[in-house]
Fold these 3 entries.
Entry 1:
Amino acid sequence: MARITREEVLHVARLARLELSDAEVARLQDELSDILEAVSKVSELDLSDVPPTAHPLEIANAWAEDVPRPSLELDEVFANAPDREDDHFKVPPA
């Protein structure tokens, strides 16, 4: 399998808005390449008898009961908002 390139690491870092040093980029190149190599080994297995699954373990719904309760007051909702306009969050234009 091909190694992850420096440019690919920098591209992912830019998408994640991460600032990486040269040493971190080199380390992540090695680590991500190792991860992809390990994952690619799965394709070498004969999985024709294995049914597709969404989760490897049987799980039951772990959600709590949906119980109606009062909403927050608007002043509480906007307490940590950087800016507010009437009953809306005010954000800078994109």
Note: The CA atoms of residues 36 and 51 lie 23 Å apart.
Entry 2:
Amino acid sequence: MKRGRLFIFLALIIFIAVAAGGVYIWRRPSTTQPPVTQTTPQLSYVEIVTAGQNISPGMPITEAMLSSIQIPDTALVQGMFTNKADVVGLYAKFSIPQGVPIMDSSVSVTQGFNLPGSFWAPYIPQGLTAVAIPITRLSSMAYGIRDGDYVNIIVTMLLVDVDPTNQSILPNFTANVSMPGEGVQLTALITSGGEASRVGNMVFDETLNQPVYLVPSEGQRPRLVTQMIVQNVQVLHVGSFPLPGETVSNQETLSSPDIVATATPAPAGQQPAVVVARPDIITLMVSPEDANTLVYLIYSGAKITLTLRNPNNPEPAVQTDAAMLEYLLTQYNIPVPAKLPYAVQPRLDNLLEPTLPGDSVSVP
């Protein structure tokens, strides 16, 4: 009986100890830290100004030339523009390709920024060179071309056949050679030659039933050819460049390039009318190869004609057919007149411009 009570007493003590331990553990503050949620930092972006098109050196920048992109604010560096209004009206110091950010080091407040050398050299895009060619009212679209315009270049040439050895125009002349004497030294004397001794061709005349020798009645006629050789060329300047200290004058009123600019006397109280000469030269920006070609054409006597282009024309260069007599007759269906037993009178050997009543008549 005593042993049974002892076991009950021990079991009660163990139960109380376990319950007290459970209460202690339940009430003890937990040392386990809750999981920490890591938040990704939010990136902040800023808008910077870029070139919306290729900008040439010295060109005044307009809003239409600009674009913008967004970059992280951490990538923003000093010198970048974030407002287009701060760039409009400035001048490009050098070529700025499309998509490149505009930096304060690439623009200038004034057009005449300080650079060594010629004032005009920074206007020439890299890879191109400037070359000057002569112009007339006919070859320059009636003086309608201005600085910055885009033109096509047409060349007209005269071609002749030459003797490959002598490099002289065919036909060659014949001559009789006689040997006046025999000995150590012999002298050959040309006893005939010149225009009357052109080299001809032997042909068979069916009427006479015998061969005859035909010689040309005149010298060789040059053959005319016209072709467009370069397209989409930008004009750097029309007329002569002003020298240091020289006043830039208007070049649009006189018809003769030899007339020197003068001031026409005016009545008292009125401003004198300034008369200046038309431009007789134009400077183009072309590749080095095209510059060589233009210089060769100038000194070879070829005629160079400029045609004005639309600056917004995106079409690439078009391969044109050279204009020749055969091309004109076939392309435009021009018939060759038949040989008729009658003709107009008086005889016409040249095309004459008609005289109209409204034409000005020069008085000697």
Note: Residues 250-263 have pLDDT under 50 and may be disordered.
Entry 3:
Amino acid sequence: MKKVRWITGKLYRVKDFAEIIWHDQARNPFCEKINNQEYMESTKDYYKTSEAYNHIDVSKIRTDNEEAFVRSLAKLGEVKILLDD
């Protein structure tokens, strides 16, 4: 089981990191379609364009898969992996 505190502050207990991204989209009332790849890329774009995140090296955010995405955000200090088995 994985336990991760996500960007939104929500604490997730999941089997894999893809579930976290799915849940974050499902909670959004404006989400019309769940698409993990699109979510990861749009999150990376948000980091790139938002002045609040200009201290983040966006080139280090990986979007090739959910595992790499969450781990790259953890390396940047944006999420915390509390338990990883």
Note: Strands lie at 2-5, 11-14, 80-84.
